[in-house]
Amino acid sequence: MFTKKNDKEKTLVSNLKYLIGKEDKLKEKLEDNSYLEPFSYDLMLFMSLIKDYYKGDYRKIPFRTISAGVVGAIYTLNPIDLIPDSIPFIGYIDDALVLKFCLKQARKDLQKYKVWKQEQSDTKSTSENDKYTDKISHDKSSTDEEDDNETSTDLKKAS
Q: pTM of the full predicted structure?
């Protein structure tokens, strides 16, 4: 039998897959609407968090936080809500209010994720720089050995 925890996890994974598939539509909706524009950065950061959570790269987030963000994003994507999006000027007000509430619930955890993401980026950059430096050192060593071999060969010919 399934437990409540398994059901929650399955539902969450299903919603995460849905949101990841709708990321472009969500970006478009945020760009096209001035009511939602103030939430663009936080929502896109949350989308990044969702992808890292889904891949298993970042799991240091409470269930309530990730579920609040998922609810807010799905509500924003859904055209059928309290105030239909098709109503000019006021259609997105409810979306903005729901997003504001959900992102406020996730703010602290989003900041922790942002720090983690920056650390990952810094680590990756350092690692890539180290690889580049190692390659340059290896290439220089190879060139020095070739130069030594050529000098040795030239000396033998001169003898």
A: 0.71
The closest of 66, 75, 57 to 108, measured between CA atoms, is 66
Tell me how far apart the alpha carbons of residues 40 and 37 are, in angstroms, rounded to a whole number: 5
Rounded Cα gap, residues 41 and 39, in angstroms: 6
Q: What would the pLDDT profile of 34-65 be if each residue is shown by its tens digit?
A: 888 899 999 999 999 999 999 999 999 998 99
- Per residue in 103-148, pLDDT (tens digit) is 999 999 999 999 999 999 888 887 777 776 666 666 665 555 555 5
Rg (C-alpha) for the chain, rounded Å, is 26
